[in-house]
Amino acid sequence: MRGRPPYSYREDPLIPAFPDDKPIFFFDGICALCTGFGEFILRHDRDRIFRIATAQSALGQAILAHYDLPTDDFTTNLLLIEGRPLTKSDSFIATMTRLPFPWPLFGLMRLAPRWLRDRVYDPIARNRYRWFGTRAECRLPTPAEAERFL
Predict the structure, then answer these.
(1) What's the 3-state SS for 36-49?
(2) How far apart are alpha carbons 150 and 148 in whole angstroms?
(3) Is residue 13 part of a domain?
(4) Is 146 part of any domain?
(5) Domain total of the chain
(6) Model confidence over 91-147: pLDDT tens digits?
(7) b vs e for 82-105, b when ≥16 Cβ sit within 10 Å of the residue's Cβ?
(8) Whole domain around residue 34: which residue ranges?
(9) Residue 105 near residue 93, CB atoms below 8 Å
(10) Does residue 16 form part of some domain?
(11) Which segments of the chain are extended strands (E)?
């Protein structure tokens, strides 16, 4: 995944065309925690710099497959930023640092090594359904949010 050049998905014929001029956050659309985080992004992203998409969408499935990530087990979120993929704690930190204050303070998490951050991330991801629940269906955007959903 990390060895691919930026925007490598543009050359992949299995990836549908999509606007990638803004960071795109892919999340598990049936996970209550993940959907809640997507809603958090929409609520706090006053400058509208993010787009979001569910991992279950056609685009989400194609992007996950392109980066050799599971297409049926969404234990990581994925942030595409400037054509590069970020996962797990890197994705979370990069997302938070692009939101208005006080959320960039989560950038201090970069002081901890990735292996340690991901060691905290992984059990939450594995147990998210049991701890936070699921949704019967993926969340649909409101008309005001439609341009931000892919």
Answers:
(1) HHHHHHHHHCCCCC
(2) 7
(3) no
(4) no
(5) 1
(6) 999 999 999 999 999 999 999 999 999 999 999 999 999 999 998 766 677 777 778
(7) eeebbbbbbbbbbbbebbeeebee
(8) 22-137
(9) no
(10) no
(11) 24-27, 51-54, 78-81, 84-87
